[in-house]
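User: I need a structural model of DUF2069 domain-containing protein from Pseudoalteromonas arctica for a docking pre-check later this week. Nothing fancy, just the predicted structure tokens so I can convert them on my end. Input:
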Amino acid sequence: MTSHNELNPQLTPKKAITIRFQRIAIIGYVGLLLLMPLWLFLLEPREGHSNGFIFVVYILPLLLPLKGIIQDKPYTYAWANFIVMFYFIHGFTLLWVAQEQLTWVVLELLFASMMFIGCTYYARHRGQELGLKIQKLKDELATEKAAHEFDNKD
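Assistant: Understood. Predicted structure tokens for DUF2069 domain-containing protein:
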């Protein structure tokens, strides 16, 4: 039987640490969302790349988790970390090849780090508060094996 809180997560209060990690995640996320277009369109426009290409490659990925973050879904915070990995790769690459843009690169890496740490721990803490659990791989494999063996007996 599901509890009322599982059906409506807004009724489950957040602990102070959960709120803190959510704020860190949102600051990092909004920071990247503001930095990338400002940097790539206004401050240091990329020569040889169309605005459409820059938008699709550098800005559009950040828009994918927007709805889930606004709706406060812990699962969205968790998978948003896959997106933020691209910004780590971009930032660390530019550390080597574009030292003249060091200020923007450091900001990108700072915001990406904040988003990664905040999203990781917010998803973990909020998931625990809501009673959400991801089945461990070994348990999932055992369940699948048992189901497969049961099907083969028929």
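Before docking, keep this in mind: The chain has a mean pLDDT of 88.
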